[in-house]
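Example complex used in Figure S2.
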Amino acid sequence: MATNAHRLITTRIKAQIQPGSANVVVRPDGISQTLPGQGGVVTGIGLGDVASRWTGDHVEPGVSLGHADPAANHAIRLLSCVGNVVTVLDGPTTGARGTVFGKHGAVLAMFAPNTVARLAPGESVAIDAQGVGLALEEVPELVIHSCSPALFDAMVRLDQGRLRVGVAAILPSIAAAAGIGMPAAMFNMDLHSWSAPVAQAAAPLRFGDIVAVLDQDHRYGRQHRPGWAMVGIVSHGTAIGGGHGLGLMTLMTAPASRFEFTVTDGARLDRLLQLPWGAAA
Amino acid sequence: MTRLRTNAADLVMANIAGRVAPARIHAEAMAVDNDGRQRLLPGTGGIALGVHAGDPADRWVADHLMAGASIEDTAGTPAVAGPLHLLSAIGNRVRDGMGHTIGVVAGKRGGLAPGFWAPQLVGVEISDAVAGRLMPEDRVVVETVGRGLRLLDYYEIALSNVSPRLLDALPLVETATGLQCVVCHTVPAELAGAGLGQDSWIGDLEITDTAAVPGLRFGDLVAFENIDSTVTRYYAPGTVSIGIVSHGPGHASGHGIGVTILATGPASRLQPVIGDGGLGPQLVAWATETGAPE
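Predicted assembly (575 residues):
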């Protein structure tokens, strides 16, 4: 495929592992619960694990990355792309390599399980950020966000002007919840993963799954638009508040006529990319 | 109009101080509209001179415009909804620092990601005479009442942002099966945009396709089908959320005309019917009255 990947720059960004949170959330039935929330270092959950089974609220498996300087943090949020290599710079796992796999408020990265187990908030990493500006000459309507050239090449096949993409699920537009109206190149879009008909399709989704949502236009911000589609990656776990659920981060968007989606078991990051710690399933 | 049994007599009234918000341009907001065009329009904060409840919501070349004055909490940051925002209900009287009535709470704006993403504003309908002397950053006091308001015979229906006098003014009719409310439009859940997932008392839920709701005015009632707002606003088949038009079109992706939620419940109990569900004249009348507080 004729992407412009050879013209993209790689920016080395330094980031810190963010503190964890305890989220106090009122559920739609009025019950208030306090659960492990976003941020911190979440051990024991990896790419490929079912995302909705964990008792948390917006849980981000692996590590969550940010920066104390707001402008530097903005750069981390915008420039990091799924598939970018992350290297630990200090602490007991110095030199360990992982990968960016999603975004929420922070940028989310995963390492080998025994590395995650030894990481801690406050430690520093380097992200070799590459992907912003990625475009495909033959499909000018396609807009790509937060996607490394390596993931794009592994995920997309160009066939007579159409983009063939394997996905774990194809969801209707009503799946879109909190995150609508936010910039598509940052954060993510929660799914109505508790409400029918989305709940059934969302139940088996795993962290790192590639998912399509129809009638969504994510060129600039995230919005409902008939005739478009978005493709994203499952980034954070479920959430208990109404209008919150599994977090799907935008990877690309185009008119639906440009896509040909096939539901396949292999549409997951840990199968699409050789992970930097050599543990691809 | 039916007089419904409520707990209004038992509600706490609290005077909460705040200020007229300065006009702001938030640098983190998307700089382009939903078709990629450069987007920089007035509408956030300050005082919109000559814009009133009952005016067409899409008349003005503006973004997220609220009629009259936009007010806010003084403690914290513009991203945080404080007690003024959380306790204000539509129909609450607003006075200036000298104690003179200046207007009435008419809507809210915000709720995209409160605590994290600005702004969180309360819209106040004011007369042109008041607008002529009111200044950004002026101290204001809201005579808040409405938190906790319940319909004693309709426990499945939850109210938000409703003052007792607004409840009395709503076009509600008791039927054999529930409560009917006259609205100007019904909106399918797919068109519910920014504001999903957030507290029903904060800001608004936006209708992302302005063309689908022609003729809407500030102060009009609309119903979102299959949206529940008992606690937060989200997609829930079989429910309905009724609200009041609080701001004009926002032009960024996923944004549109703002609706502050007033009532929600099962569609079997809360039944929108299309008609002239416009409260603009009532809000204007309240804003200009000088009588005793409710």
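The longest strand of chain A covers residues 223-236. The helical segments of chain A are 70-79, 113-116, 149-155, 198-202, 269-272.
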